[in-house]
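Sequence in, structure out. Go.
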Amino acid sequence: MFRPDIDQIEIFTDALFRHARREGFVSLRSFYEDDSSKPFRITAASLAGGLSFINQEAATAAELAANQPRGIVFCPPIAVFSNRKQAREVDIAEGLALSVECDQHPDEAQRKLVQILGPATAVIRSGGKWTDPATGHVHNKLHLHWRLRVPARGDMLRELKQARDLASRLVGGDPSNKPVCHPIRWPGSWHKKAEPVLCRIDTANPDQEIDLTGALAALTAAQPKTGGNGPADGWDYREHARSDWSSLIAGILSGNDYHHGLVVIASKLIASGMGEGTAANMLRGLMEASSAPHDERWSTRFADIDRIAGSAATKFSHGRQTTTPVALPYISMAGWDDEPVPDQEWGVYNRYPLRQTSLLSGEGAAGKSLLQLQLCCAHVLGRDWLGTMPEQGPAIFIDAEDDAGLIHRRLANILAHNGSTFEALARGGLLPVSLAGHDAVLAAPTRSGKIEPTALYQTLLKDAGDIRPKLISIASSANVFAGSEIDRSQVQQFVSLMTRIAIASGGYLVLCAHPSLTGINTDTGLSGNTSWHASVRARAYLKSVKPENGEQADNDLRELVFKKSNYGPVSESIPLKYQNGLYLPLPGASSLTNAMTDDVFLTLLARFTKENRNVGDRRGPSYAPALFAQEDETKRVNLRSRDFESAMRRLFAAGKIWNEPYGKPSRPHYRIARKG
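Output:
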């Protein structure tokens, strides 16, 4: 019996359906291999049940398809549909990905498209094989998917279809995959045209996504130039990409096609060497000369010109840099002998330094955004945050994942806890921003790999200097950083740009991030590479608390672990509990330090020794951390076995305790004892 790999399905849906709305349906389709026009089974799975429901339904459908005597292919479209019954183009509610089926020269096709679009969100080995006629080498056929940062809806579906078409034509991909509703094989299902092969994920970059406007512009500019009176391959490129100047300008002047004309003209102007500002001015001139009504549609596109020109500059400036010499900012130390050594300045004492970028990572739904919103309110209202008093002042809270309604509800809970009002928040300078559903990218790579700021970044930088907030909180890195999280140089450049904002504000910036599965399993809380840890000055990890042996799971418990502090104490850990809509320290936890934990360990060790109760450092009936965690005084201050394990390691390293031998010299036993 053939069973699907549900882990592969889960990774795939998380990567490509991450931004899908909950109101639509996924069309789980299976067709006969030898007659693709004939469906074997079609069911509609509602996204209202979440991705876990989609995964279970998909696994059931894939297993049913795999175990039929006649070949069946399980191939749901990567789209959301508006109804249960049909999955036509007119039924598409959202297009989620730019997908390309590379059935010929797949490795070369992948390299070419990655150069244009950046790394794919998911690369799938479909199970099919392609033999190179020139070399006889056998290659795996590949399906490439780039998740859209904002799903395509309405008129943008036409542009997604065009982008898929252009990408397929560039690399000789399957042209039938142009429609957004086209079925495509899912990983985790079985390919049974020949020897049964499991369709698998080759590589996955689940946080990688693209902007459709920029992708379409890049694919348009990458199309091969043709000579004579028409394209060499017989394809009328002007009909599909409309790259000729007269058609593009006519579309803008008549009002028939603002968006595509602006995008392609901006790309052409920037690629030819024109500056971003000059290109934007030319586009404004074309829009102002349009004979169409200057209505809301016109105004929307006119307001989008800076972003379009910025996106084109990012993609097509080819790394052009100024040759004007730049003086190094040497520091004058001449007066330092007569000046006091400055103290370290903190936004939150011993946790977050001023004029620096810090990182807060945590699993999805762990509570990062809520915890940061609580911190913003603490700054604005002059209240405590997890047992400390942050510097009072304005705060900017940017959430690219949650809408204004959720922010409103969370703030209401925070205000109820603090006995304050929205008027006080506004007067104190809290400025919440929701970019959910919008392009939230602050920095993106050029073709040369250099990370360049976007127009949105420039706006935030200006506001930081004008408002001077104590804290700028941004959720999350996947939404605002369009580079590769595994590229050390790009990560460092991005963090430097964030630090520039922190310096301009005089406060500090905290960036929220999601850890990878490896980061979760290894307890580092990181994703990508170690540059995320190295580039920031402070880093914290918010994680769920796993029950220990004999304990009952409490889903409301969290642990905030400070993994790095360049200028303050390291390894502080704060247990938290979700109560009345916000995360609060457990009694005694906010003031609990490593030194206090060590003192409790030594106190208990002295009592156990006096009572002739030997404890050891090896797991078993006499394991010291486990026994100490059961004492009443321990429970009153919410210490756990893992806290005592850390204390034990510190005390051994400091030489304050040792393994004392006792018993017969021929068969010595060892117990923990005070040293000296």
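Check: The first helix runs from residue 6 to 16. The chain has four domains: 6-209, 242-316, 346-585, 594-674.
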